[in-house]
From TrEMBL:
Name assigned to this protein: DUF427 domain-containing protein
Matching InterPro entries: DUF427, DUF427_sf
Residue span(s) of domain DUF427: 16-103
Superkingdom of source: Bacteria
Signal peptide (from-to): none
Pfam families noted in UniProt: NTP_transf_9
Residue runs in coiled coils: none
Length: 108
């Protein structure tokens, strides 16, 4: 990693819940929290805790020099709402296939 840039991943001690349009999209006690220099904490949720049946794969991809290439999923009314790193860089291998949402509720 570049000097000054830091990423840490740890098991979250919080319950994470994602609601969009009144519908629960994800709920997990097994989320990982990723903290990255210059970014807000992001919660990566295992696929078994996400309503994958509601999501449609997107053609969108983005590249992060620290995490790798992300794939995205959408809802009918929310494009690219969810992303994951199917082949993350080795330093962040723990987030492989976990899904991340832009907005989550965190219960302590």
């Amino acid at each position: 990693m570049t000097t000054g840039h830091r990423i840490t991943i740890e098991a979250s001690d919080a319950r994470v819940r994602v609601v969009h349009g009144g519908q629960v999209l994800a709920e997990s006690d097994r989320a990982l929290v990723l903290r990255e220099t210059g970014c807000p904490p992001r919660y990566y949720i295992p696929p078994r805790d996400v309503r994958l049946d509601l999501l449609t794969p997107s053609e969108t991809h983005s590249y992060c020099p620290f995490k790798g290439t992300a794939s995205y999923w959408s809802l009918p009314d929310a494009a690219d709402l969810v992303w994951a790193y199917p082949e993350p860089k080795p330093d962040v291998a723990g987030i492989k296939d976990h899904l991340c949402f832009y907005e989550v509720e965190v219960e302590r």
